[in-house]
Amino acid sequence: MLSVGSSCSFFYINSVLLFTLRSKQVFCETSRYILLFNLLLADTATLVSNLLLYILAFLGIRISYYACGPLILLSVLTVTISPLTLAVMSLERFVAVCYPLRHAAIFTMRSLSIIIALVWAFSFIHILIRVFMLLYVFTTISLDLQMNDFCSLEAMFFTPIFNYFEEAYSSILFLSVGAVIFASYIGVALVARSASTDKASARKALQTLLLHLIQLSLILTSTLSSTIITSIARRVGRLTLIRIYNVCFVCLTILPRCLSALIYGLRDQTIRPALMQNLCCRWRCSLF
């Protein structure tokens, strides 16, 4: 129940922050807030889909492959969107600090719309590849429509070909995104040493990029959580395994999806007053 409670709390905070990012004109016209909204939307969708899967497993409910498929594909789709958006946000901070005069010309509303569309299109291509692979497996293997196990990524994509594809895809994706964030961090660090740079802005950008690296590391670890739990399951009992699974669910699945709200919602001087006002207002409304 602690896992469900923490998930609902983070979902509430993310929802209020999403509402906040659409409540003022400045949030709808500033590049970093537009990218944050896209990241937060993907994180919230991942949070909801994983929470539904967790509740189904907790209640012991087994569903059909047709019902399980959309939940799994939604989770996989948004997991891909998050690291790609983190890469774009890191580049945006790099341009803002290193090329402040060109920032407004590079990150226009039109360019941001194209970038976000490309991020979603790339993620949909990943989903389509998985769907075609799944259709191929279903045509070669005779399966009952009702799942024998709980709805999960491992139960849906159960053949070795999915593991090979996921390992290759995740390695390329996270290495590329990690290289972009690290390169942005190095670029900002080098520019921060010059006398003409705004030291406070550069220092804040460095802290944000470092947090992006931590967030990316947690997302990468969450993709490996099933492998970690599978290896642990061979050495411990069922009760211990359930406790470890609950800890991994909170730390590796839920925590990375709330870091966006913590990084920007609490640190950003523009968002924080509006976010706290909406949080307090909605909390009071819920009491009456």
What is this structure, in a nutshell?
This protein has helices at 2-20, 25-29, 31-58, 65-98, 100-106, 109-140, 153-156, 160-192, 199-223, 225-233, 238-266, 271-287.
> Structural class per helix/strand content?
mainly alpha
Strand fraction: under 5%
Q: How would a textbook summarize the main sheet?
A: none
Tell me the Rg in angstroms: 21 Å
Helix content: over 70%
Spans of at least 5 consecutive residues with low confidence: none
Specify the overall morphology: globular
Q: N-to-C SSE series? A: HHHHHHHHHHHH
Treating each run of at least 4 consecutive H or I residues as one helix, how many helices?
A: 12
Count the strands? 0
Mean pLDDT: 80
- State the separation between the terminal residues, measured CA to CA: 25 Å
Care to describe what's here?
The chain has helices spanning 2-20, 25-29, 31-58, 65-98, 100-106, 109-140, 153-156, 160-192, 199-223, 225-233, 238-266, 271-287. With 288 residues, it is mainly α. α8 (160-192) runs antiparallel to α9. The longest helix is centred in the first third of the chain and has 34 residues, at 65-98.
